[in-house]
């Protein structure tokens, strides 16, 4: 008997060990300020985050310990000389604030996380790193700005500005062996940096744009491996970017300019013997404007003469006797900041699908996709021959380029051959929005193999996928991806092709929220909120465009209100409290400004754009002329301001400004009362002239008395379903709330009809008429096309949010922001028969893959580790539900019946649910 029990104990022990071996848990994706191993951050108490990966269900973090060291060697030896948090009882794995020794300028930090879970302890798979930047203006003081503040032959200070690139170089002599080296660079407007002939980094169009009179971003690179003992060569090329703006000496009352390109750089070198050295920009650097980049202008294109190439200009022993000494120049004026968002990068390549000759002997290249970036050219010919490439989004009926919608943007690249065999070229300092390219200069017909499209946008991850049973909806999703990515240019811009390309606030009021499901856009939008804050006037006004490259300070609610709605998105989607705490004073200042200047009898009287881009009654019209389609501007601004007040109540708590709450509540109550008194029609149970937007806004914002909500909604439905025959009739404002409100009030089927329509006006109508991105106008193919950008995102409204939250069932619980708890509540009866979607949240990958027929619903989904989900199942019959092939019962799962549904709370893991 004893032997039997001994064997049993051994068997059980082996089984337990085997089970433990199978429970693979790891700590991955360590981030600092949501950046991976960032260099040169300007935060002394950065937030640290990590993800937990496991192959078993129900994994929860119970404790964490963070170890931070000044060197990797110390970290590996267990010497946490900067911070040992100790074992902290907490399930926090996102935005844990560094609380170790005070960090200094240029401090390196190596760190890792050791966590305990309910399944065991584990440490980070790999250590992470970040470094502190140059935190004070005084530390830059001895570094001088250098440049060349003149024009050269061929340059032009005019409406069509031309300015050749600046090439700078300096040779240095490092007398000792290098242990560590970092370079800090501000190259305005754009730069490329080289050491010993090698480009540093894979970024393009760097740094990100700002209002350079307010702040300038510097980039930091570890260049230890690029330097050697002895002679080294530093080289930079400065392009124009938004610094030397696209239009000079033209509409100075509107377009802000900043001066000629210039640079400040510091190279910090630490030698193996412990000594240090600093190389700075000064007048010993050499400069020339007589290089191959003759002009670079974001609107007009880049011109390059390969015959003027200077072989070896960025290597040692280059003869620069004909170069000038760099001049000391005036600094731009803005404060210096470490860049905390990604630079742009070539993210993918597109191969053309066809090339056709035109009657005039040129060729039309078709990329098959409206894209943003540039074209790489491969050519062979004689010295002096020119290849000209002109870019556009569409063609005229005769097959030639349609360029009227580009306005005065020339969108043309010119390459002059050097005549030395096969030549490969692509521009450095511009981008185009295009599908078609007119090419001239080839002596024989070129092949599509001569060209490669380079897709350029911010180096941020695609986080979302979506596929469904409806092909139109799937194509709309693809079009949205291409449009959004193409308009990420260090800031969100409205369009990438014509002479605009501006960061309009109103385009992203709700759009940023939808975009956050497709892209990891947290740092991009956090940076943009700084741009908005920096654009605020002393008295509180916020412009419609920020950074304020265009001076559009017109005052209204719906465009500047984006400042608040984007901050709310960052909190809801990413759990970012810090951004609200940082921006709250400026937000409050703007709210006070609008109240003091434009609130009359508790109605917000200031509106500028109305419900912009309402679908016109005629396919030929650009703007509707029918008063019955247009919504009262003061109704829009009052309802929107009411909603912003409610958001500011939430922000006041987060920002420890509870004293403001009473004022927000009182003002909101007064506006609601005045709004209903002025706009509600008691005999017809609708608002104002009964447009969809007029009824939609008060319904969505909770301004309609509860007992009247259903009647108002019925009027709204009648307008959509009957009057507009099941089509969109809202503009930029109404469309931000249309899809979710229809679904939340029980008409997901009507929302589905709007999403899947193929006829005008609809997103599907764009698809049916050849769109591969999202148009600026609902009727962009028939209204004056000169007024239509074919790559805009503002008309997406809340469509993408609806895709994820209402169709896929991937929504962050507002009570636990950042997807700490997920609400999984798809509308299974809207009209789709399957959805397969995923979203990489800050905690990990969320998947939702469901398919239904008349017999059953099969739903497979993934909940990230250290999170949970509230799952809604469309039945009240408990016996019809199985989870992971086991019948639902209370011994295994927590659930309750609610509103004809069964609601189950699940912890992390992979699940397969079957509902008969």
UniProtKB/TrEMBL annotation:
Catalytic activity, EC: 3.2.1.40
Q: Does the keyword Hydrolase apply?
A: yes
Residues in Alpha-L-rhamnosidase concanavalin-like domain copies = 356-457
Q: Which residues form the Bacterial alpha-L-rhamnosidase N-terminal domain?
A: 176-347
Q: Where is the Alpha-L-rhamnosidase six-hairpin glycosidase domain?
A: 462-807
Start and end of every Alpha-L-rhamnosidase C-terminal domain? 809-879
Is Cell cycle given among the entry's keywords?
A: no
What does the record give as the reaction this protein catalyses?
Answer: Hydrolysis of terminal non-reducing alpha-L-rhamnose residues in alpha-L-rhamnosides
Keyword set for this entry? Hydrolase, Signal
Record GO terms (molecular function): hydrolase activity
User: A Pfam family name for this chain?
Assistant: Bac_rhamnosid_C
Q: Which residues form the signal peptide?
A: 1-21
What name is this protein filed under?
alpha-L-rhamnosidase
Organism per entry: Flavobacterium humidisoli
């Amino acid at each position: 008997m004893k032997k039997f029990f001994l064997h049993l104990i051994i068997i059980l022990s082996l089984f337990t060990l085997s089970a433990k071996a199978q429970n693979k848990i790891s700590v991955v994706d360590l981030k600092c300020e949501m950046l991976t191993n960032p260099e040169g951050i300007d935060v002394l108490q950065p937030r640290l985050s990590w993800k937990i990966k496991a192959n078993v269900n129900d994994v929860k973090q119970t404790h964490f310990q963070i170890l931070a060291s000044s060197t990797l060697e110390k970290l590996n030896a267990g010497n946490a000389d900067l911070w040992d948090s100790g074992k902290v009882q907490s399930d926090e794995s996102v935005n844990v604030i560094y609380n170790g020794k005070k960090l200094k300028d240029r401090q390196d930090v190596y760190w890792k996380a050791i966590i305990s879970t309910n399944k065991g302890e584990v440490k980070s798979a790999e250590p992470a790193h970040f470094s502190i930047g140059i935190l004070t203006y005084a530390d830059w003081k001895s570094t001088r700005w250098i440049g060349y503040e003149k024009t050269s032959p061929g340059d032009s200070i005019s409406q069509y500005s031309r300015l050749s690139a600046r090439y700078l170089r300096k040779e240095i002599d490092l007398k000792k062996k290098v242990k560590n080296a970092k370079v800090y660079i501000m190259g305005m407007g754009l730069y490329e940096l080289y050491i010993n002939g090698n480009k540093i980094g894979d970024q393009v169009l760097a740094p990100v744009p700002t209002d350079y009179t307010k702040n300038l971003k510097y980039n930091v690179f570890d260049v230890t491996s690029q330097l050697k003992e002895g002679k080294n060569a530093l080289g930079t090329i400065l392009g124009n970017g938004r610094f030397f703006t696209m239009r000079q000496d033209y509409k100075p009352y509107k377009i802000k300019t900043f001066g000629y390109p210039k640079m400040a750089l510091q190279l910090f070198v630490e030698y193996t013997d412990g000594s240090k050295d600093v190389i700075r920009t000064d007048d010993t650097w050499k400069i020339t404007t007589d290089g191959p980049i003759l002009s670079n202008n974001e609107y007009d294109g880049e011109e390059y003469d390969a015959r003027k190439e200077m072989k070896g200009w960025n290597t040692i022993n280059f003869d620069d006797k004909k170069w000038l000494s760099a001049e000391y120049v005036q600094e731009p004026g803005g404060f210096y900041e470490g860049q905390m968002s990604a630079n742009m990068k070539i993210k993918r390549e597109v191969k053309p699908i066809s090339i056709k000759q035109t009657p005039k002997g040129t060729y039309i290249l078709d990329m098959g996709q409206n894209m943003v970036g540039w074209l790489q050219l491969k050519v062979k010919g004689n010295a002096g021959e020119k290849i000209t490439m002109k870019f556009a989004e569409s063609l005229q009926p005769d097959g030639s380029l349609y360029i009227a919608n580009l306005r005065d943007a020339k969108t043309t690249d010119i390459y002059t051959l050097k005549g030395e065999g096969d030549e490969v070229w692509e521009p450095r300092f511009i981008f185009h929005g295009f599908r078609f390219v007119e090419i001239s200069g080839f002596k024989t017909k070129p092949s599509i193999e001569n060209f490669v499209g380079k897709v350029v946008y911010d180096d941020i991850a695609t986080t979302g996928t979506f596929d469904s049973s409806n092909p139109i909806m799937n194509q709309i999703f693809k079009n949205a991806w291409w449009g959004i990515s193409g308009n990420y240019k260090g800031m969100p811009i409205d369009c990438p092709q014509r002479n605009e390309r501006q960061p309009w606030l109103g385009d992203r009021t709700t759009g940023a929220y939808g975009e956050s499901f497709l892209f990891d856009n947290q740092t991009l939008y956090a940076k943009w909120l700084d741009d908005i804050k920096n654009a605020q006037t002393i008295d509180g006004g916020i412009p419609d465009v920020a950074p304020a490259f265009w001076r559009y300070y017109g005052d209204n609610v719906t465009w500047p209100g984006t400042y608040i709605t984007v901050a709310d998105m960052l909190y809801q989607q990413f759990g970012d409290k810090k951004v609200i705490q940082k921006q709250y004073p400026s937000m409050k200042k703007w709210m006070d400004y609008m109240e003091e200047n434009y609130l009359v009898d508790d109605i917000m009287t200031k509106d500028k754009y109305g419900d912009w881009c309402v679908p016109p009654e005629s396919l030929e019209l650009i703007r509707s002329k029918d008063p019955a389609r247009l919504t009262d501007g003061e109704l829009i601004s009052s309802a929107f301001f009411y909603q912003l007040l409610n958001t500011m109540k939430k922000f006041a708590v987060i920002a420890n400004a509870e004293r403001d709450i009473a004022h927000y509540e009182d003002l909101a109550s007064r506006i609601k009362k005045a709004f209903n008194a002025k706009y509600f029609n008691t005999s017809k149970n609708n608002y104002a002239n009964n447009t969809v937007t007029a009824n939609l806004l008060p319904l969505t914002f909770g301004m309609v008395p509860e007992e009247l909500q259903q009647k108002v909604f019925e009027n709204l439905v009648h307008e959509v379903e009957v009057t507009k025959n099941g089509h969109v009739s809202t503009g930029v404002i109404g469309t931000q709330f249309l899809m979710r409100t229809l679904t939340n009030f029980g008409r997901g089927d009507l929302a589905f009809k709007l999403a899947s329509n193929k006829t005008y006006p609809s997103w599907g109508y764009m698809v049916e008429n050849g769109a591969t991105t999202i148009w600026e106008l609902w009727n962009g193919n028939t209204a004056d096309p000169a007024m239509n950008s074919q790559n805009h995102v503002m008309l997406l409204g809340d469509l993408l949010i609806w895709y994820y939250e209402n169709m896929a069932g991937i929504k962050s619980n507002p009570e636990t922001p950042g997807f700490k708890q997920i609400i999984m509540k798809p509308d299974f009866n809207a009209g789709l028969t399957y959805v397969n979607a995923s979203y990489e949240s800050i905690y990990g990958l969320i998947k939702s893959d469901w398919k239904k027929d008349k017999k059953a619903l099969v739903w497979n989904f993934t909940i990230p580790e250290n999170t949970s989900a509230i799952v809604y199942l469309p039945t009240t019959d408990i016996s019809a539900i199985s989870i992971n092939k086991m019948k639902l019962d209370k011994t295994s799962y927590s659930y309750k019946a609610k509103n004809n549904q069964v609601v189950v709370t699940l912890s992390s893991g992979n699940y397969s649910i079957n509902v008969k």
